[in-house]
Design goal:
Elements (H helix, E strand, L loop, with lengths): L2 H12 L5 H12 L2 H20 L10 H11 L12 H27 L3 H9 L18 H10 L12 H13 L2 H10 L13 E3 L2 E3 L7 H11 L13 E2 L5 E5 L5 H11 L11 H5 L17 E9 L7 E9 L10 E8 L10 H14 L4 E8 L3 E9 L3 H9 L9 H14 L6 E8 L10 H12 L4 E6 L7 H10 L4 E3 L3 H10 L1 H5 L1 E12 L4 E7 L19 E4 L3 E10 L28 E10 L7 E8 L10 H16 L10 H10 L8 H16 L2
Parallel strand pairs: 7-8, 7-10, 10-11, 11-12
Antiparallel strand pairs: 1-2, 3-14, 4-13, 5-6, 6-16, 8-9, 13-15, 13-17, 14-16, 17-18
Helix pairs in contact: 1-3, 3-8, 5-8, 5-9, 13-14, 13-18, 16-17, 20-21, 21-22
Amino acid sequence: MKNEHDEAKLTAYALGELSEAERAEVEAQLASDPAAGREVEEIRKVAGILTEELKAEPAPKLTSQQRKAVKAQAAKPQRKLRIWIPLSAAASILIVVAFLSTLSKSRELGHQVASLQDEKLALEKDRDVMQVTDAEKIADVTKAEQFKAKIGRLNQPIDALPQPSKPARVLAYKFASKLSERASAIVRQRGMRKSNVLYADGHVVGSGEWLERLPGDSNEAFRRRREEWNREAYDHIVDNPFRSVADHPLSTFSIDVDTASYANIRRLLNQGTLPPKGAVRIEEMINYFSYDYAGPKKGDKHPFAAHAAVAGCPWNARHRLVRVAIKGREIAPEKRPSSNFVFLLDVSGSMRPANKLPLVKRAMKMLVERLGENDRIAITVYAGAAGLVLDSTTCDERQKILSALERLRAGGSTAGAAGIKLAYQVAAKNFIKGGVNRVILCTDGDFNVGITNQSELVRMIEGKAKTGVFLSVLGFGMGNYQDSRLEKLADKGNGNYAYIDTIKEARKVLVTQMSGTLITIAKDVKIQIEFNPTRVAAYRLIGYENRILAKEDFKDDKKDAGEIGAGHTVTALYEVVPAGEKVETPAVAPLKYQTPARPTEAADSKEMLTLKLRYKRPDGDKSTLMEYPVADAGGRFDKASADFRFATAVASFGMILRDSKYKGTYTLDAVIELAQSSKGKDKEGYRAEFIQLVKTAKAIGKK
């Protein structure tokens, strides 16, 4: 008996819909076909689960037309076995589809809407978040009033919604999809595609694909299959080594205020998987958090203040830690300069899932609500081709802007380069001298039409940045996420790079930290540290691997570097080996024609190092130098500030995730203990979330 031809008969048999003669025929065939027997048992199991899960769920009423169609089908003898259940069961199909669609989106969005009233209202306003068509277009499945009622249910806390078991959610989808042609048609009409559902137990969803754990899959086998399926792209990262001060007295790098790595790591860990090593950029993890650093004083000519502190190293008692901290000047909302923003939104086919374009639209709407009459917004999009959806419009016409966002739909291939060119053209046309001119790119980075070579895209962006129009990059999605490409674009576009996986993260980036994200107060910010050889034998910069500069680049004003936004904090950590301690460093052959440099008189001082910074004004071409000597007072690590200790906890977590050889004997338990002791006030709850994330990583590591 071939299941592929007789599945309807097996279903009818499992559900007790056959006559005695038909049952006898099926049972005779089952006796010789173990696979068919297993299929029957699966159907019975699913039916039992659904019966229990759907007891409290009200059955949607069929239209008179639907009733006639079902009765007509049931009356046809040759079609008897295809109608696997009478009218009540046909209604059950509708229950399954409507119920699962609501529940799957409830589970996906529930954590976002549980406590935030405005997000609950947003669900009601933006039906695209649910990935369904308009109510009138699904009239043949359920009435518009019932659809609206289901939307309304999402405005309840997640705990108030029915929570079916994991097997029920997974098996019920398969059950409803395969039992009959009618059920499959309903699924298609209802928009319940596999790409819309994300299961927290390891099911991976993206680009219309569904990778599931197969029966008997070990964790290792499932991990390998996921890696083969996954198209996410990350650059290879090699830890900065220890450098001998005798051979390399200067350490030079570009500052970085990007935060994408931390948010992306959080997404991966919450999905139950450890992040690829290339996804772990320690500096972005540290700088995801804000710190209570003092900003520039009133009347200070510099747009930011710089600080340094020294303490013991928790993972190596013989070493010291140096923390370099920068705090940008705050700008009051009423003093914010006029803005010329161009939203460049990816509306290609890969952006259909709810965590992509629908989330992009909600994020952009939140930003629009924060802007005023002195701000302008244009909307450009790209898919198979680039297009202008909304010409530059002042934000006192807010409804016009929101309506343009509302109309966006995903579909087509991804001509990203053409969209970037158009966005810069629109920004240049509406350029505000002395204001904020910025393109905000929202995408998963999956460019596949036009200029797709990373180096070409980077050169194009680098050239556009010199015109005074900066670029912010917001990454979305999973499965085909192109992290390495987006980081480079933001770096060369004089902008910042964030990853948005939830509406909460969108609020952090675009509302809470709007000034820092969108208003640049200093560009091409470089740090150079000169270590005193009488105090320091060797040093290692933790993170910033792709921000390292040659020592000659520090004074070269043609060399691009990082930007600081209003109110931004930037943190960098060095692990330092005191003079007299032994450490392995890359070997350098003795010189034939000269001797190593000899210490100067200044080296006899108590100074451990000199911190130097260079920066340019947002519209300037010449850099300004800042310089601070730093001494080591011998302070213990447990006496360091809470901010210093928490940043160290984040850095050590990054080293463990990357399996760095420099992590020493530090463990995740030690990270948790350190983070808990240095959490501080934690007004936004980000540090508490970090502690939970470390616990999640620990649990995953035990599997």
